[in-house]
Amino acid sequence: MELQIQELVDTIKRDGVEEAQRKAAEVLADAKAQAEQLVHEAKKEAARIVEQARKDASVTRHSGEAAVQQAARDVLLSLEAAIRSQFDRLMKKTVEETITGDMLVSLIVQIVKSNLASQQSSIELPKAEFAAVAEALKTKLATEMKAGLTITPVEDVTKGFRISERNGTSYYDFGSEELVALMKPFLNPVIQQLVSTSSGK
User: What is the pLDDT of residues 79-92, one digit of tens each?
Assistant: First the structure.
């Protein structure tokens, strides 16, 4: 399954979607701007903590220095958590805005054509999206549907889609949260760089 998911990620990265890349660039720019603001505020807070730690470090110089270092580490950990949370929120919003209409049709067609769905699979769509994309999917996947593939609106899919085997043995979830989880490893280095820059490493 990992190989299939990697092939899917490679297909999406190779074939598709300039619009998603543009939105991702906007998200990254927005997140960087917000991260810079967080860094600025974190540095001010770190300076306050350091000054307070210096005042309180009357027992010994060694214990004072240890307290300062621990405070700096705590601030960096809080900063990293805040940046990750912001990235997650912005990524989820962008993915949800992107995987609709023509983009949703294109993504489903690519995945079905990559043989990830069998002839006994059902493409499960959000009810809100079904009317907008069903006809296009029926046209683009006519051969697969003649072979047994079905397209179904369901209540429990709100964004994206799911490919389920009709016998209930397995399914692939391509909801917004699952797609964000697939993309996160590619953003982790960016987040690490922001945190390292803020710490002066």
Answer: 777 877 787 787 77
| CA nearest neighbour of 14 among 118, 110, 101, 113 | 110
According to DSSP, residue 120 is labeled T
How long a stretch of residues is the chain?
201
- Helix ranges restricted to H, 99-175: 101-113, 127-140, 142-146
Q: In what order do the strands lie in the sheet with 150-154?
A: 150-154, 121-126, 161-165, 171-174
Angle between helices 176-199 and 18-56 (to 10 degrees): 40
Q: Spell out the domain ranges in the chain.
A: 16-98, 101-169
Between the alpha carbon of residue 174 and those of residues 16, 22, 159, 179, the distances in Å are 15, 21, 8, 6
Tell me the per-residue pLDDT of 154-164, one tens digit each, with 9 for 90 and over: 888 888 888 88
User: What tokens appear for 18 in the block?
Assistant: 């300039």
Q: Rounded to 5 degrees, what angle do the CA atoms 91, 96, 100 make?
A: 140
**Cβ-contact 83, 194 below 8 angstroms:** yes
